[in-house]
Amino acid sequence: MVDVSTFAGGTPLHRKVQRSLRLQKLRALGLIAPLLIFIMISFVIPIGDMLFRSVENQLVSEVLPRTTSYLEAETIDDHWEPPNNLFWHLYVDLAIASEVKTHTRVGSRLNYEKTGISSLFRKSGRSIKRFGADEYQKAITKVYPELVSVESWENFLSENNQGELRITQAAFDFWKESLIENDKFSEKTKPSDFLFVVLANDIISGNTPLAKELLPIVTDLPQIKFKEQFLAIDEDWADPSIWRTIQLYSPNFTNGYYLNSVDLKKGADGPEIRPENERLYLLIFSRTLFMSVTITLVCFLLGYPIAYFLANLPFKQANLFLILVLLPFWTSLLVRTSAWKVLLQNEGVVNDILVAVGIISNLERLELINNQTGTIIAMSHILLPFMILPLFSVMKTIHPSYVRAAKSLGATPWTAFRRIYFPQSIPGIGAGSILVFILSIGYYITPELVGGTTGTFISNRIAYHISSSLNWGLGAALGSMLLAVVLALYWVYDRMVGIDNVKLG
Amino acid sequence: MKFVKIPALAVGCLFVAHSSQAIDLTVVSWGGAYSKSQINAYHDPYMELNPDVNIIHDESSYEAVAKLRAMREAGNLTWDLVDAVPADAIRLCDEGLAMEIDVDEMLAPAPDGTPASEDFGASLVSECFIPQIVYSTTLGFRTDVGTWNGNEPDDVCDVFDLETFPGKRALEKRPINNLEWALLCDGVAKEDIYDVLETEEGQNRALAKLDTIKDETLWWSAGADTPQWLADGEVVFGSTYNGRFFSLIEEAGQPVKILWDAQVFEYDGWIIPTGLSEDRLAVVMDLVRFATDTQRLADQAKYISYGPARTSSNALVGEHATLGIDMAPHMPGHPDNAYNVFFFNYDWWADYRDDLDAKFQAWLAN
Hints:
The complex is a heterodimer. Chain A is built from 24 helices and two strands. Chain A is mainly alpha-helical. In chain A, α5 (103-111) runs antiparallel to α6 (117-127), α9 (166-181) packs antiparallel against α10 (194-205) and α19 crosses α21 (413-441). By secondary structure, chain B is α/β, with parallel strands linked by helices. Chain B contains 14 helices and ten strands. In chain B, β1, α2 and β2 (53-58) form a beta-alpha-beta unit. The A-B interface holds A 100-102, 104-105, 107-108, 111-112, 115-119, 122, 182-183, 277-280, 283-284, 287, 345-347, 370, 448, 452-454, 456, 461, 466-471 and B 62-63, 65-66, 69, 91, 93-96, 168, 173, 204, 207, 218-219, 221, 232-234, 275, 347, 350-355, 357-359, 361-366.
């Protein structure tokens, strides 16, 4: 019997087919690879990065590891008093952080949540050098003069640490690591003086053989009272709310930015609503949605008749008018927006004409700019072509014979339009509306220029947090919320109209 | 053949030697008339003295903080020297993005030997900040408003007086300066303002004062807005930087006057980004030392009406380079103008900026 699946050469047929199919697939993949890579780099990775930043919060526990792990077990209420031990941990953390200048970064991070922490950290980092650690350094290096280099510290620790110098070892390692990580470590680096305080502390509390020599010396030194020292820098260190903020923002990931972006804040017992005079983002989100919907509607009302008119013109004339529609596209966005400023302002062309014609008096000039009206007018103008073009190309495909047939069967022009023409143009309306809406919801420059205080979008706040306040986490959270809103609306649209029912031509 | 080769090699060596010395520095500033004044007063003379240095101008100071942070995250620093306002300098310093400066070692002393730290005095607001100029944010008004019946504002609080001085105002779209002026005009003594503003009641009090003119106010975010609005008659009274008023009045000839009362003194200066290579840093330091010496700072005032940050430069301020006007009376620090000055508290705002900005924006949006 002949095996039909075997060809000359002995390769089974299905395998040959598979191989050629695989080759085809690879070739297809190769063709789209440039686009795929481009989309990955310019779209997927940035969005992933944004989503990550909106929850990421490693800085606090990275810079203050001892303090944050100590605080983990504490329940901080309004009467809580920071224990002495906590300041000891804070001292070690801050001594290292101030050497690599990360304390101010934590300060500004936490200042977004609680006003005053920024300068508290800045001040404390500056003053921490004056706690008296140099005395310890002097006294100990008198006995061990070699302890002035990093290398001899390493040797000293490896020789003497049988577990009793655990804390010193950890502090030393973390100190060195932090310096290396921040490019501050070089051959010239000297061991920091706070390390001698840590060493003295280990000698007093443990029973290391070193104690024989060193104990009398270090117990002779004036004891550093960390709590008193910190409170002398700033009394705010006694304030439980400062410590609670550090505690709330110790975890590596936080929902704090998202809470902020819906006008809530992290409290001791879960999310709390912000006081009324700090609520901002929900208002701006709803304004953004309202204005985007209005702009889409305005574009539809203005664009539909124009598209209808264009679609029913002879080809040559339609082309000419299409160029007129496209003309604004070729003008700079800034020029168009500035032109609207000239037209719409109080002493502008529109108001001047209205006054000259006598429709309004000179004292009741209309406020057409630096508010929502300005944003809606200017953006409707800018986005109008995005409505007209899909409408036009869909209307082009509606054959006139349908309307003619309806009329010949007795429909009035209005009925013929309503029942026959309009339903066929819906895919164009869908495409135009989605385009205009999605473009407008993320618009930035026009609202910034003509929006005043009430006509700005959420994107203007995002820009503020990215470029000015440097609160990138909050900016990312607001951006992610915007993305979520767009996706949710897209889903609603798909359920209601059906995304298959959208045509660009 | 040998004879041909040797000169060619020599020329080659020369070429290599030359190109390894030549250095391109990217200096970032604000653009416009301000950048021009820096180019005229600092960069061009420096390049003349040091033909190996080529200064490239970048006008990105308004987004310097964000860009420097992005550069650090990308690990690719492309800027060598950045012009920044103190608030940004403090932020950059906190973030470890700007280098700390040893003022007396790195900057030139005054001609009489006064150390730089003393000569710059109060303008050294952050460890990372190298001051250049003093400017002020102050108010100006149109002189031809019919409804004012010939009255002219002479007090900062006139901006809140809608009865005597009706018409639209222009104020900056941020809490800074506005809250201080509001409290000042609500009867708070100058030295108590920041203490009052620290409390919730104080903040509400300031916003309540601003409420009285909120409907009559346009809020600007670019320095060019107020001059343009004043010129168009959109507003009759508004705040902006004193240099903008100078060009509006002296260069554009508009009927506008400056109200110097309670002008808010602010500084502007350089920061050096952290992470420059050693040889680049050496050149940048040399440029900074040159550009912030007494003569250079005085020279800048020929091109723009911002005062030098050094005390010793003030005596050297001369005439405007093209207009031929004596510049001293146009400086914010001139005795005729500085009769009532408000000093801005940078440290305080570094703490309160995030919180108050949120409150201010919420107040504006409602």
